[in-house]
Design the sequence.
């Protein structure tokens, strides 16, 4: 019996990096992600046609991109204990890798769901997210869990890291949230950027903690704006969030150029999303017509851009 699974992509609207240190983040599922299928096989393997990648599960795989896929697949299969299956996974990826859109988490969640469906296992979104963290740890070391939570749950929510369980507060948007996502074509390594912020915090802890507290305040105000349908206010908060991220030294000249072009084209707000150091930026649009103008402005810089609604479920 074959099984199918879906994992949503994600936007961190506000609060990236701060969420690593126990502050809240406002996250939203992206209306695109990863779909995977699982079928019985003699040995467990993963194929990702979009990346021209095909690997066999192995915890001894080398420290390469394909090796990480191999070790991550093995980590997921190990969560099944004595019932560890032999499966062939084929994944259809609709997100740029290393773009800050939760591609790895969406892939991990889709794989867990596909294997569960293949085995006839039923579990909650929270349990799926928890299982997929075995995959995320291979790529990100000490992930906050927000990407996996979004990939599994969908929707919009305020996320706060917790032990043993994260705190998740669903948020119901009053207005449609349409974003333009621009890809800087600079791959970003979450693990490396989180480590860079940690080193910065070791050097100037008081300064960095004030920035993180400021991000937490923006998240709480953004929550109110989303629930009220106040998109202009949300856009202003996004711009403030980008300014704070700049103080953490995680933006790049290319991301700044794309954000500026988006604002000039009418975006209500624009910022990087995810760990930074490259990856993607997001721009909030008033309506589909504005979204097209913003996307055109980003493409005029020679960058790829697409339009997607946030809050998919």
Sequence:
């Amino acid at each position: 019996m074959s099984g199918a699974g879906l994992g949503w992509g994600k936007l961190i609207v506000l609060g990236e990096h701060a969420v690593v240190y126990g502050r809240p983040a406002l996250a939203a599922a992206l209306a695109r992600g990863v779909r995977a299928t699982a079928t019985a096989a003699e040995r467990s393997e993963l194929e990702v046609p979009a990346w021209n990648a095909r690997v066999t599960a192995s915890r001894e795989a080398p420290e390469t991109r394909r090796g990480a896929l191999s070790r991550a697949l093995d980590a997921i299969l190990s969560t099944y204990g004595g019932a560890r299956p032999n499966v062939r996974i084929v994944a259809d990826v609709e997100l740029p890798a290393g773009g800050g859109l939760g591609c790895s988490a969406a892939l991990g969640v889709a794989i867990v769901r596909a294997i569960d469906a293949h085995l006839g296992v039923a579990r909650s979104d929270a349990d799926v997210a928890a299982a997929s963290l075995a995959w995320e740890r291979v790529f990100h070391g000490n992930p906050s869990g927000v990407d996996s939570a979004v990939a599994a749950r969908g929707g919009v929510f305020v996320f706060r890291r917790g032990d043993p369980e994260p705190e998740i507060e669903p948020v119901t948007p009053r207005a449609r949230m349409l974003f333009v996502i621009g890809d800087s074509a600079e791959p970003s390594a979450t693990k490396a950027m989180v480590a860079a912020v940690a080193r910065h915090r070791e050097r100037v802890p008081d300064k960095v903690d004030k920035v993180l507290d400021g991000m937490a305040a923006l998240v709480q105000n953004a929550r109110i704006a989303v629930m009220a349908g106040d998109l202009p206010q949300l856009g202003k908060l996004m711009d403030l969030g980008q300014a704070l991220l700049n103080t953490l030294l995680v933006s790049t000249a290319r991301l700044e150029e794309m954000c500026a072009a988006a604002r000039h084209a009418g975006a209500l707000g624009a910022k990087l999303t995810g760990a930074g150091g490259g990856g993607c930026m997001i721009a909030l649009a008033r309506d589909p017509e504005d979204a097209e103008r913003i996307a055109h402005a980003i493409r005029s810089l020679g960058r790829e851009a697409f339009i997607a609604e946030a809050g998919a479920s």
The longest strand covers residues 25-40. The first helix runs from residue 65 to 78.
